[in-house]
Amino acid sequence: MQAMQVKNDFPILQKVIYERYPLVYLDNAATTQKPRQVVEAMTEEYYNVNANVHRGVHFLSQQATELHEASRETVRHFLNARSTTEIVFTRGTTESINLVASCFGQAFMKEGDEVILSEMEHHSNIVSWQLLQARQGIRLRVIPITDDGRLCMDDFEKLFNERTKIVSITHVSNVLGTVNPVKDIIRIAHEHGVPVLIDGAQSTPHMPIDVQALDCDFFAFSGHKIYGPTGIGVLYGKEKWLDSIPPYMGGGEMIKNVSFEKTTFNELPYKFEAGTPDYVASTGLAKALDYVSSIGFDAIQAHEKDLTAYAMQRLMEVEGMKIYGPHLEEHDAVISFQVGNIHHLDMGTLLDRLGIAVRTGHHCAEPLMRRLGIEGTCRASFALYNTRQDIDALVDGIRRVSQMF
Ligand code: PLP
To answer: Is position 103 annotated as part of the catalytic site?
Structure first.
């Protein structure tokens, strides 16, 4: 894969920051940039197709509906789900996780029942369950991590008991880059008769996902982290679970018949899609997935592995560098680091003055920060359009900042 050529698909990457520095965009774990193909498809839909989807008898509505449902099929294919009935469009990973916590919780959890999470979860996979805790008195059980940022799998097994109702865990840590052994986690949970939700926000952009091979019960991801638009995401759920949990929100689309006495709900997946869906964003998401597929995960993984290895090697040349997370083999394209005692906010702000975009802070993972005994980190995260030159610019930038202190 030629990352330099790929860069041409992303107009924003040509930007010059502070009228001086070419943009070095290394904040991809927060959100990725969008290729022309995505933006143009969405513009085209607004210009030539726009109409509300489903049940419209007129030409535009039918065309918009066809596009929207074709996008669902693209997502199904991307995840290798069995059926489009298992693909629910949401606003993103956060909404997908909240949906499961709320609806699965309502159907299957009562006071004292337990959900197993890990110490490296994003706030969206902690607070959603705490809301359920406040409503229904459930308990959160937490898998500890090792000092180098891997799950303690022995402790995981010991957390199961007759009150365990679900495991909800991130595939890839947005801070440490740890790739969790989700296949083993799912197998172990299933041996205990417990379903598993995988937070795929950080894995879908970097590795092929096959929900049938994984055998996960739910899988959540966000469009904007995989070169698609903001405001759209996906919840995959096995049909048997989606069928057996109540709807999340009420409104249009999700009903079959409504009366003041009794309302019946629509079939899957519409039962979970109350209100007008973002049918233009679904087109954008499908285009983004097509874009990724056209490059192919073999090429993407080879490129990103090379970049991550190169970045680790180059960063370690910097005096006072500390990198968090596991060794390279288990490390995805996210690197959290700290240089000497330079505050991460100072480092990030000064790198920005050189046109280098990294993220600083707790990365929506405060419990993990507490476990690591730190307030925050600087985080560089890579995408398919990043190059070794971007890494060189980062390392040079860090050196320049370090010299100021
Ligand atoms: N889970 C993980 C691991 C994440 O990294 C993020 C976002 O950074 C989320 C969940 C939430 O994603 P979103 O804000 O797109 O809903």
So the answer is: no
